[in-house]
Amino acid sequence: MMIEEAISEACATVGILPPKGRAYGKWMQTDTLAGKKGKGDGRVIINDAHVTAFNWQTGETATVGLRNGLSRSERKDISHQITRQREEQAAKAAKAARIAAELVRSAKPGAHPYLRAKGFPDERALVLDAERIRRIGGAYLVPESAKSAIIMPARRGAVLTSVQLIWENGDKKFLAGGEIGGASHRIARGVDTWLCEGLATGLSLRLALRGLGRSDTILCCFSASNVPVVCQSVEGRCFIASDHDKPLEQFGGKGAGEHYALLARRPFLMPPEIGDDLNDLHMGKGIFAVQRLVTDMMRGAPR
Fold first, then answer.
1. 184-303 is classed CATH 1.20.1270
2. Pairing state between β 148-156 and 125-129
3. Cβ neighbours of residue 98 under 8 Å, at least 6 residues apart?
4. Where in the chain is the domain with CATH 3.40.1360?
5. Distance between CA 118 and CA 224 in Å, rounded?
6. SS3 266
7. Which domain of life is it from (predicted)?
8. Is CB count within 10 Å lower at the N or C end of the chain?
9. What are phi and psi of 151, to 5 degrees?
10. What is d(CA 249, CA 254) in angstroms, rounded to the nearest whole number?
11. CA–CA dist 175, 95 (Å, integer)
12. From residue 221, how far is each of 13, 45, 93 by CA, in Å?
């Protein structure tokens, strides 16, 4: 299969547009088929054996083999480019980890408008002002008119790999080159482990569990597709609090949250309304509605 055919097939499978340029061994940015809402949320990488397309919105990945579509000289040239790109990516990841460490060191515990909007006015998180974020990490991290962000460390075990920044209006930013796959942010510690996507979901889950007399570990995984990756490193009983995302054809009519929860093969719960996460349920119908979801799921969970 020729490169152009492989790119078209991989992109169509995950619902993104083929990238305009061509590069080898590095992720090329493109748009999804969702229009303005999907701008910049597609990724494509070409190496000497296959093309891989990734849809950031859904977490879906597709790989198409090139087979006999390249000559020996083309494969050799691509192989050199891939080696160079891997070295560059490793350098970018190391730089992102250093920036993440400086952002975490500079941030101070405090209240934040995002937490207040999500129903937790007394909750404290690591907070840093926009000017210092711009100076430490770069202007691309700071939305227009933003004043401060929550700094959420992303760790694999004890190793800090990156951070997620959450701004007042809910905008979320990640460090360029930072490694998020397999990383999480812990907001509670206990015997059993719960995995969820975002901070607000985790806080509503923690409140519900405490009201039920439970104190469990809660890990925020940053995205639905990262949940089964983080799950692989969890020992003991593990549960998932999934978002109820809109159904997608490529996931067999299931939303991304449910799809990746099923891939993790652990017991999971999900709010009844499409578009809701646990914090939406908490804010709309109260914490007792969240507690009912938890107790109903755990009633049938293996001991």
1. no
2. antiparallel
3. none
4. 184-303
5. 20
6. coil
7. Bacteria
8. C
9. -105, 110
10. 8
11. 10
12. 25, 24, 18
Alpha helices in the chain (DSSP H): 3-14, 72-106, 113-117, 130-137, 199-211, 227-231, 256-264, 278-285, 287-299
Identify which of 248, 236, 160, 255 has the alpha carbon closest to the alpha carbon of residue 195.
Answer: 236
Residue length of the chain: 303
Q: Where are the beta strands (DSSP E) in 104-237?
A: 108-110, 125-129, 148-156, 159-167, 172-174, 185-188, 193-196, 217-220
- Looking at residue 298, its amino acid is M
Place of tokens 């510690």: 189
* 42-46/50-55 β-pairing: antiparallel
Beta-carbon contacts of 243 under 8 Å, excluding residues fewer than 6 positions away, are: 197, 201, 224, 255, 256, 257, 270, 271, 276, 277
Residue 1 in this model has a pLDDT that exceeds 60: no
pLDDT in tens, 97-131: 999 999 999 999 999 999 999 999 999 999 999 99
Is the pLDDT assigned to residue 293 strictly greater than 90? yes
